Amino acid sequence: MTDTLIRPDGTRLVYNRLAPQAGHSAPGLVFLCGFGSDMEGLKALYLEALARERGQGFIRFDYSGHGLSDGDFRDGTISRWAEDSLAVIDALTEGPQILIGSSMGGWLMLLAALARPERIAGLIGIAAAPDFTKRLQWPKLTPEQQTRVMEQGFVQVPSNYEDDYIFTRALFEDGADNLLLEADIDLDLPVILLQGQQDVDVPEETAFEIARRLRSDDVTIELVKAADHRFSGPEELKRLARAVDTMTEKYRDDRFQG
Asked: Nearest 10 degrees: CA dihedral of 130, 121, 242, 111?
């Protein structure tokens, strides 16, 4: 069911929520899309169909400035989109949740889990890209583009997808305040990281760095040789379904069982 959540500042976040079947005790699923993406992507729709088939709760939504939600994309920052994610978790879900983060969504899922550890049963990253503003994107900009960001406030660069990317000075500066891979990540929960080896946007080394930084010992990395950044082919989606099954089965934590 598509509806809207009103943030305290009046911003409307559009979401689609699937309620769990009565008596269903598995954790809910929350999908966090990537930078510039939206809740109508293949992975989001596939996960919704999967959740419906299994009677599991599920939410997909658009961050502010994305998709159908209010806001100007250029006003967005990692902090703002993390706040959007927490608003959805707090207002629209009950009980334990499995967060599934794609690309930038993998950064946001880690930030959300750090902010609400008692609500998160596990994490599934798909080409998870914490710290991408500093580690991946800033070095790709030419010196001229870096100067344009600092002096004019933004730069527009071609992407491998439908629309060009717009990177703002605010995004880079706020990203620096939310870096996670420069210290240990204090999360002790199950994590599965799915990573394509043909991904030209997020290198596989990022998955290994996330695993090293996480306090949890229950971290699995699954490398898929033929997969690219989209991770949306039939075989990749099947792997995603298996990851959801594995994470759901891991759910045994007494914090959520009373």
From this structure: -10
Catalytic residue, chosen from 62, 84, 174, 199, is 199
* Widest distance between CA atoms in the chain: 58
229 is catalytic: yes
CA distances from 112 to 5, 38, 116, 200 (A): 18, 18, 6, 26
Residue 84 annotated to the active site:
no
216 is known as an active-site residue: no
What is the tens place of the pLDDT at every residue in 45-73? 999 999 999 999 999 999 999 999 999 99
Can you give the pLDDT at residue 162? 66
Give, in words, the CATH class of 2-131+180-250.
Answer: alpha beta
Question: How many whole angstroms separate alpha carbon 136 and alpha carbon 116?
Answer: 27
Neighbours of 3 (CB within 10 A): 12
Tens-place pLDDT, residues 215-237: 999 999 999 999 999 999 999 99
- Token reading at 98: 């499995």
Q: What is the pLDDT of residues 131-152, one digit of tens each?
A: 999 999 999 999 999 999 999 9
Closest CA to 122 of 11, 18, 256: 256
Which member of 64, 85, 102, 103 is catalytic? 103
The domain ranges of the chain are 2-131+180-250
Per DSSP (E only), the strands in the chain are 2-6, 12-18, 28-32, 58-61, 97-102, 120-126, 154-157, 165-168, 191-196, 219-224
Q: d(Cα 172, Cα 174) in Å, to the nearest integer?
A: 6
